[in-house]
Fold this sequence. Notes:
Structural class: alpha/beta
Amino acid sequence: MSEGALAPGAALPPVRRLAGELAVSPGTVATAYKELRGRGIVVTRGRGGTVVASAPAVASRRPPKVPPGLRDLAGGHPDPAFLPALVPPSRLSSGARSHRSAPRLPRLEEAVRDWLGPDGVPVEHVTFAHGALDLVGRLLSVELRPGDAVAMEDPGYHHLLDLVTALGLRGVAVAVDDEGMRPEALRRALRAGARAVVCSPRGQNPYGGCFSEERRAALVEVVREEPDVLVVENDHASAVADVPLRTLTSGGLNRWVHVRTVSKFLGADLRWAAAACDATTLARHDGRLLLTSGWVSHLLQETVLGLLTDEGTRALVSRARGTYAERRAALTGELAARGIGAHGASGMNVWVPVADESAVVNGLRSYGWWVAAGARFRLSSPPGVRISVAGLEPAEAARLASDFAAALGESEATYGG
C-alpha cells in the first residue's frame, strides 16, 4: 500500500486466504489488519470486507476567493503599511557559500538566540526552516507514521489541519478558550494515543487565545505525563503579539520545538522560520532537511538578519504591535456594546460564535464585508466566524459591529434563531 500497488478502495484478501498464502496463522493477519485500521490505512465495510482507505484530501480547507467589491477581513494578513521594504543584500557575507558545511549563518544564529532567549525559550540548539508549516511537516513526517494521532487546537489554523491530513495522520481535537488549549481536553487526547501536540502560546488562530501563567503550568503538567510526546509550539504572531510569551518549552520537557516565522511582521515573501528544540529533534529535523532542500538560502538568511537587527524595522514592528491591539480591542468593544460575544485576547483575529456561519457570512456580504466562515478552522467545535482586524481602522469598527448585529438579526429571522 505504501508503494501504491493497492489504490484507495482496493479490497484486501480475506484473513484466512492471506494467512494461507503467507503461511502464517490467521491471528497474525487479523492483528496486522487491526493495526492498519487503527492507523487509518484501511477501513472495514462489513460484508464488503477490508479495503484501502481513501487518500487524504489536500487543501480541502482552502478559503474561497474574495468576491469583487468587498472589504476583505478574511485573509488574516498583516497591514502592508507596517511591513518593511524587502531589499536583499547586494552580496553574501564572506565565506557564506559553503552551504552544506555551514547551513546557518552564525550571525543569524546569534540573533535568533537573542530573540528567543529573553522570552524563556532554551536556545542551546537552534535551526532554520522555510516557514512554520515546512518545519512542522518535516518533523511530523520523521517522528510519526501514517495513522498516528496529533493533538490539534479546535478551532485551529486551517493549513495545519490540512497538513496533518495530507501526511496521513489523524487530528485529535483539543478545545481552546481565551487561555489557549484546555488542559483536560489535551489530557484526553494524549491518553487516547496522540504522539504529538501542536499549539500556539499566543495569538492563537483563529480564537486569539494566549497562555496565562496558570494555564502554561497546567499544560506542562499534562505533557509531562507523556514524556515521549513531541510538543510543537508555534509562536507565529511573536513580534506583533501584544502579550508576553509563556512558553511550555521552559518546563523541562523531553521532546519539544518552539518555532517562529517572520511573515506576520516582515512579510509573507520571507519564507523563513527560526526554531529552538531539544537535541534529538534538532538532529532529526536537520537530517531530513539535508536530504531534501539541503539548507535555507543564505541570501534569504542575510535578508532576514538585516531586518531583524535594523532599528527602523524594530520601531515599525513595535508600532504594528500596538496598532493591532488597538484595532482588535475596538472591534470586540463595539461588538460587546451590541450584546455580541467575541474572542480575541491576542493576535490579529477576532472569533465570533454564531449559530449559522453561512447566514452571517452572506449577510455581512450584503453590507460590503467579507469574513471567514469558521468551518475550515473547526474539527468538532461549535460554529463561528473569523474576522481579521489588522487592517480595520478603529473608526470602522462601529459600522462593522452594527452590520454584524443586523446580519445576526436577519439570520435569526430567516432560520428561526
